[in-house]
Design a protein that fits this description.
Helices cover 46% and strands 16% of the residues. The protein has 406 residues and is of the alpha/beta class. It has two domains: 231 residues, Glycogen Phosphorylase B (Rossmann fold); 158 residues, Rossmann fold, CATH 3.40.50. The protein starts with a strand and ends with a helix. 45% of the residues are buried. This is Glycosyltransferase.
């Protein structure tokens, strides 16, 4: 199969699970013998632009005509079987869908977040779940400045959502939701249910599972409010006040809360802030964990770190909402805490660290869950299946058009 992957890469200064997923899917497909090429833009390149070009970037968010022409020309010359669209913000825009239509190539789109119904894609405002824009015009997002706390920065996203809603719905043969929880939200918003399929992200086998009881509790991810970092700090303070759990908390990552995390961890024996880990360090840190903590306050569409922990045979403590509810079987592969409640998170961390035998059993169950649902073999099968469905759907549509003209 010949696949063209379309993706706007996120800035390298921040860890991006989405960039990683795209790279891993490309490698997986190529390893299976498929021809895969990439059409991309990089957010890192914005910094090198002139002041005038930088100022024009928001105008490209709803529509980039240069991208449409460039991609359409490439599609006509290379004739891939299918185009797989990932992120289009801020430099690609939904103009990529028009290019696919121009060239008559079916498009598949992985929805990594909630940008189809929420301008910033988080379904969260002021640290709390928010669905005010779901199924309606995104004016509340502009009013509240939901993207980066700025009304001005939110406008291009809100405009793009409004003017391109129908283009997305009609221009994509198959939407790949990364969890059933995400699909439910999108179906309720009015997106075409028949085009929304669930295809979980896969995780490469790390090659080694945890062998001992673990050396630390691990938080691995972006240091942001939505990821539950402040919630974790409050819960860990409660744990420390009652004597701790015998192992330190390791926090690995970068983000807007980094100064706050650094100050909080300074001078403590029970907390280590280690900065941004590379992939190999991430795998090592996970394999040495008593548990991995995922306390997100927003409704995660997936939760890559949860599955990475499962792959290493490590149980997880996660918020009991969003995709985590389908990824983590409470009491079997990990523990779920009440979202947004530090006391509940603290109690689950104490519980998962208190019983080594039970912890080991959860880790083994987590590994089995990974093998059955999130391995590369499973990911490849589902991905190719969805490509074939999209290609067949476009062929049928073309046939209907021919018949309709007779």
């Amino acid at each position: 199969m010949h696949v063209l992957v379309v993706h706007n890469r996120y800035a390298s200064a921040q860890p991006s699970g989405e960039n990683r997923v795209v790279d891993q899917e490309v490698e997986l497909l190529r390893g299976a013998g498929h021809r895969v090429e990439v059409f991309e833009r990089r957010s890192d390149d914005i910094a090198a632009r002139s002041l005038l070009a930088k100022a024009a970037v928001p105008l490209l968010v709803p529509w980039n005509p240069v991208v449409r022409a460039e991609l359409a020309a490439r599609l006509r010359s290379e004739r891939p079987d299918v185009v797989h669209v990932h992120n289009v913000f801020p430099l690609l825009s939904p103009a990529v869908l028009a290019a696919c239509a121009d060239a008559g190539v079916p498009a598949v789109a992985t929805l990594h977040n909630y940008t189809q119904v929420c301008p910033p894609g988080t379904l969260q405002r002021d640290g709390r779940p928010c669905t005010e824009c779901v199924g309606s015009a995104p004016l509340p997002a502009v009013r509240h400045g939901c993207y980066r706390g700025s009304r001005l920065a939110t406008v291009p996203l809100a405009v793009s959502l409004s003017v391109n809603r129908r283009r997305w719905w009609s221009g994509v043969e198959r939407f790949l939701c990364i969890s059933a929880a995400q699909r439910d939200v999108l179906v309720r918003s009015g997106m075409p249910a028949e085009r929304l399929a669930v295809k979980h992200n896969f995780v490469p086998d790390p090659g080694a599972c945890r062998t001992g009881p673990g050396e630390h509790v691990l938080y691995l991810g972006r240091l942001a409010e939505a990821k539950g970092v402040r919630l974790l700090m409050a819960a860990w303070d409660e744990i420390a006040a009652s004597g701790g759990v015998g192992v330190p908390l390791v926090i690995a990552g970068a983000g807007p809360l980094e100064p706050e995390v650094t100050a909080w961890a300074a001078g403590r024996d029970d907390v280590r802030y280690v900065g941004l880990y590379d992939p190999a360090q991430c795998r090592q840190a996970i394999a040495r964990s008593v548990a991995v903590v995922a306390p997100s306050t927003w409704l995660e569409a997936f939760g890559l770190v949860v599955v990475e922990a499962m792959a290493a045979g490590v149980p997880v403590v996660a918020a009991g909402h969003g995709a985590f509810v389908e990824l983590v079987e409470d009491g079997v592969t990990g523990l779920l805490h009440r979202p947004g409640e530090p006391a509940s998170l603290a109690s689950r961390i104490r519980r998962i660290a208190a019983g080594p035998a039970r912890n080991r059993e959860m880790g083994q169950a987590a590994r089995r869950r990974y093998e059955q649902g999130f391995s590369p073999a499973v990911g490849l099968e589902r991905l190719v299946e969805e490509y074939r469905t999209a290609i067949a759907g476009r062929t049928e549509s073309a046939g209907d058009g021919i018949n309709g003209g007779q």
